[in-house]
Design a protein that fits this description.
mainly alpha, about 60% helix
Length: about 160
């Protein structure tokens, strides 16, 4: 069967199957499934003992949890001492520095990736190409092309 024979079937399928409505329904269904999944996960966390789960309040629209801070904080009135955390971070940086790429490596990687993709056509060039474009068939709207012909005449003036 040739492609020409499939065109009527394809156009009939497009008319019957409303793509926008179907897509919207699928997105709404996916969102409701995600909300249900998140609610079930939070209920399971809440069901665990308070020693295991940091979640202390799980109400619709409100979630509270108790989390450990990386710094020792005695009061909200004064800043905590961050020097142990900074020292630990500096040790971690020194041990992982051998595995991190250098600036030259990152530059060569960026150049390699940019060479894979064609350069973007500027907007002005695209507008000029659209103005030069001559369609092979005239568009006929619902009124037999009368509106389009009026607009074309106005544009030519």
């Amino acid at each position: 069967m040739s492609i020409e024979g499939l065109k009527p079937l394809y156009s009939a399928a497009i008319q019957v199957w409303d793509v926008n409505q179907s897509l919207q329904q699928n997105l709404q269904h996916t969102l409701s499934l995600l909300i249900d999944l998140a609610q079930k996960e939070l209920n399971e966390l809440n069901a665990l003992s308070s020693h295991v789960s940091p979640v202390t309040v799980n109400l619709p629209g409100e979630i509270q949890a108790e989390l450990a801070l990386p710094l020792e904080m005695h009061s909200l009135q004064q800043m905590p001492d961050a020097s142990p955390l900074v020292a630990r971070f500096e040790r971690m940086v020194l041990t992982t520095m051998d595995y991190l790429p250098t600036r030259a490596t990152l530059d060569s990687l960026a150049q390699s990736v940019s060479n894979l993709f064609p350069e973007k056509v500027e907007v002005k060039e695209a507008e000029e190409q659209l103005k030069k474009f001559k369609p092979t068939k005239k568009y006929k709207g619902k009124k037999g092309g009368k509106r389009l012909n009026k607009k074309v005449k106005q544009l030519k003036k």
